[in-house]
Amino acid sequence: MQGAVDQFARIRDEHTSGRRVGIPQLIVVTNANLGPDLLEMTLQPCWPTDVALVGPGRPHPTEPWLPTPGSDLAVMLEWCIEQAKRVPFGSLSAETLESERTEAEVTSLTGFLFGALVSEEIGLRAQLGARRDYVVVDRGPATPRGGQSGDSAILVAISNDGGWFFAFSDMHVRRVPVMAPASPAGAHQVAEAIRAFVHGELGDVFARPAAAGRVWLSR
Questions:
Q1: pLDDT tens readout for residues 83-124
Q2: What is the mean pLDDT of residues 186-192?
Q3: Are strands 51-54 and 215-216 parallel, antiparallel or unpaired?
Q4: Which candidate in 36, 145, 186, 203 could, as Cys together with 150 as Cys, close a disulfide (CB 3.0–4.6 Å)?
Q5: Is 105 helix (H, G, I), strand (E, B) or coil?
Q6: What pLDDT is stored for residue 157 in this prediction?
Q7: Interacting residues of 70 by C-beta distance below 8 A, sequence separation 6+
Q8: What are 190-213's pLDDT values in tens digits?
Q9: Residue 219, Cα to own-chain centre: how many angstroms?
Q10: Are 168 and 153 in contact (CB under 8 A)?
Q11: Over 50: is that where the pLDDT of 46 sits?
Q12: DSSP structure class, residue 128
């Protein structure tokens, strides 16, 4: 940290001399608690007012918009979810803002999706992909035309760093997001949306503008 403070002192001098404009600030962010010696230093009157140490339980004294660091990634993820709950996402749950999924998690969710698609309730014909990370669903008589051939099957998957989506299996340039939780229940909701698309109930969502083409589901 000493190197950062020394570098900031040189930058401060640039502003003081008028060679740079604005008011400089140094904010040091850490996920660890301050040691007793460093904490004592920050409480001294001689501690520079334009240098702040931000850490767990120690927010910035004059910049409340800055998030207070957590002790680990799980704590920060929980903070992000709490902030996201304040945003009007419609039917999108804040908990869908997740960290990157593992291959095992993608495979598991894809398995739930496949089971829901071929269940007696949904009644579609589908095949698991070779790596079990996507499902290809057969078309129906009322399915909108699409893909290079015009009669492409439908690929359905969940990305490892995003959400559910579907696309024509031979043309992945345009993906339609399905706003449902990344959970077994969410996989069933996605299967219901795919059934509606295959049966022509959603119309040609690929012909709509990207934002309007999303499929929204309640949790």
A1: 777 766 555 555 555 557 888 999 999 999 999 999 999 999
A2: 94
A3: unpaired
A4: 145
A5: helix
A6: 95
A7: 31, 56, 76, 78, 79
A8: 999 999 999 999 888 888 765 444
A9: 17
A10: yes
A11: yes
A12: E
Across 7-25, average pLDDT: 89
Map residue 26 onto helix, strand or coil: strand
Distance of CA 95 to the CA centre of its chain: 9
Q: Are 55 and 29 in contact (CB under 8 A)?
A: yes
User: Poorest-confidence range of 55-64, 81-90, 144-153, 176-185?
Assistant: 81-90
Report long-range pairs for 100-105 (Cβ below 8 Å, ≥24 apart).
Answer: 100/160, 100/161, 101/158, 101/160, 101/161, 101/182, 102/160, 103/133, 103/160, 105/160
Q: In the numeric block, which tokens belong to residue 90?
A: 């419609």
Question: How many angstroms separate the CA atoms of 157 and 134, rounded?
Answer: 5
b/e burial code for range 93-116 (CB count within 10 A of at least 16 → b): beebbeeebeeeebeebbebbbbb
114: tokens are: 């496949």
Residue 108: which of 219, 189, 186, 198 has the closest Cα? 186
Give Cα 86 distance to the centre of its chain.
Answer: 16
